[in-house]
Amino acid sequence: MTHLSRELENRLRRRLVKLYGKEAAPDLLRRFRMMLGRYGITAKEGSKSRWSERDTMLITYADSLQDGNKAPLSVLHQFLKEEVEEAIEIVHLLPFFPWSSDDGFSVIDYRKIDSTCGTWSDIEKLGEDFDLMFDFVLNHCSRKNQWFRDFVIGVAPARDYFVTADPDADFSEVVRPRSSELLTKTPTRNGDKWVWTTFSSDQVDLNWKNPDLLFEFLDILFLYLSKGSRFLRLDAVAFLWKKIGTDCLHLPETHEVVKLFRDVLNIVSPDSILLTETNVPHEENLSYFGKGDEAHMVYNFSLPPLVLYGYLKNDSSLLAKWADSLPTLPKGQCFLNFTASHDGIGVRPLQGLVGKEDLDWLIDQVRERDGQVSMRAMPDGSESPYELNISYMEALRVKGDEQLSTRRFLSSQALMLSMPGIPAIYIHSLLGTPNDLEGLKKLGYNRAINRKKWNLQDLKAELNKDGSAQNINFEQYQSLLKIRREESAFSPGAAFTVLSTAPGLFAFIRTCPATGTEILCLYNFLEEELDLSAQVSETIGLQIKDAHQLIASETGEGLKMIEPCGFRWLRIQKKQ
Fold first, then answer.
1. 528 falls within a domain
2. Of 45, 276, 335, 516, which is least packed with CB atoms within 10 Å of its CB?
3. How sure is the predictor about 455, in pLDDT bands with cuts at 50, 70 and 90?
């Protein structure tokens, strides 16, 4: 039986008591120690630093790139090795398990690889060249999962793995991320049961009140770690614990489960990183940092819609105000910054930041660019916008001006790359993929607009076409990534100071505490040139002529002017 330190054992016991009661906790703790012993797992020592400025993440499906009969995972690996290995350190592989809906997030078997994508061997080979992040889909599984089949026929232990409820109970407080029915009627050997289905009738919510389920997922966790997953993304974790009469969101038990997984990682894989996916208003999102004892990273969910709103409005004021309010995080915690992902651009994180009139305006702007809007159910039976479904490049498009559109998009990406935290780049942002209207029409769900599956040869032809929008985007995006990873002032923990400027200019300084290196980041939100000399020198006392420019100017004006929707990264020297 594996020995745990008194501190670790007491911490785990407290978690188990809060989740499953005082009487059950001793047996559960003993069961955990036996589990560690069975796998030959011992407590380990972690390294001093979890991340640096060199850490950048690529978000991709296992089958985003395809080439005939070759395994898509192998095709992806080859492409990344040949094209982006010098720019990317971490690959977030979206669910690659057998699935029945939601492009992988309705898992049929957590321990297998979808045979159309490849094998565990393909993933392990990818892990030899990149750090990996897997999805831990905790809230629900597919109706086709063997667990649910066992539930239907009454076979232990999975007959108790799912949440059932009385359809006549009061669910008026429950927060919904979808407009589908909360409960789904299911015939079973013991009669009809109403199972909880937060996201769809095919995605049945799991019962975390059952400790057997916890140990099932601990076993899966150990498998993922053994296959090379250093980062673990807790999908839809905010909805995990159910309690009728509450909103069933961010319940204390949910936070306790996250903390428990953090404690387990500290024991078995202390260099691993736990990320929570909670697409909710900003303050609620921040709660998953806990008191330094919960998630290592949370998504910076307010960043994508605020950046989009600012560029479309030609006004960075709201973004700057929000950015200035970001907390300084303790060592060992940071944000995961992004603008686009496999999902849409969430608008719940704008709650309290943008009023209804401005949100309606933003939605209209997205629809004008052929985007879609997904809705969620409200307690009064109405529907409310939940996310905007559109390619981020298309969302920022300036009608009739391809050059300005590309520049504005790349500026938005540079902004994201320079914010405090680790940047995560969606593969279709890196590739400059436009709206996939054909995929949207064929598949019939909104998120398909930004989930294109590229034929590798077609993709290479587009990327190698000199002067094309995709060619320019791909080359310049990689240049940004390569510059960023060489600058210590862009490390996740480097200081971040937002500067007071005119509404058209967003400016901040990143400062590396170890080296004292300072980088001034300037973003022009206007569709016209902006004179830097007066703005910058008055704001921070910078001698423009002495600044080192990390990004070349298009206009030839060097440090004096900034192009419409352009940006600058400047290594600065203060006046003596």
1. yes
2. 45
3. very high
Amino acid sitting at position 122: D
CA distances from 302 to 181, 264, 504 (A): 27, 30, 20
Q: Is 479 helix (H, G, I), strand (E, B) or coil?
A: helix
Whose tokens are 């978000």? That residue is 59
Please state the rounded mean pLDDT for residues 532-555: 58
Across the range 96-123, mean pLDDT stands at: 98
Q: How many C-alpha atoms does 109 have within 13 Å on its Cβ side? A: 7
What is the CATH number for 526?
2.60.40.1180
**Considering the entire predicted model, what is its pTM?**
0.95
Q: Which helix (H) or strand (E) segment is 212 a member of?
A: helix 211-226
Is the distance from CB of 487 to CB of 457 less than 8 angstroms? no
Query: CA-to-CA distance for 562 and 316, rounded, in angstroms?
Result: 15
Q: What is the DSSP letter of 492?
A: T
Name the catalytic one among 235, 324, 343, 401.
235
At 531 the pLDDT is 85
pLDDT at residue 553 greater than cutoff 70:
no
Q: What is the CA radius of gyration of the chain?
A: 24
State in Å, rounded, how far the first CA of the chain is from the last one.
Answer: 64
Tell me the β-bridge partners of 571: 519, 548
| pLDDT of residue 575 exceeding 50 | no
The H-or-E segment that residue 539 falls in is helix 532-540
pLDDT at 535: 62
C-alpha 255/C-alpha 276 separation (Å) is: 10
- Would 525 be classed as within a structural domain? yes
**Chain centroid to CA 383:** 25
139 touches 240 (CB < 8 A):
yes
- Scanning the structure block, which residue is given the tokens 């188990």? 16
Examine residue 315 and state whether it is found in any structural domain, yes or no: no
Instruction: Answer whether residue 524 is part of any domain.
Output: yes
Question: pLDDT at position 345, please?
Answer: 98
Instruction: Write the DSSP assignment of 233-265 as a string of letters.
Output: EEETGGG-S--BTB--SS-HHHHHHHHHHHHHH
Count the domains in the chain.
2
Residues forming a β-bridge with 506: 523
The pLDDT value recorded for residue 210 is 98
Q: Is 235 a catalytic residue?
A: yes
Element (H, E) at 57: strand 57-60
Sign of CA dihedral 161, 166, 171, 176: positive
> For 394-406, what is the mean pLDDT?
96
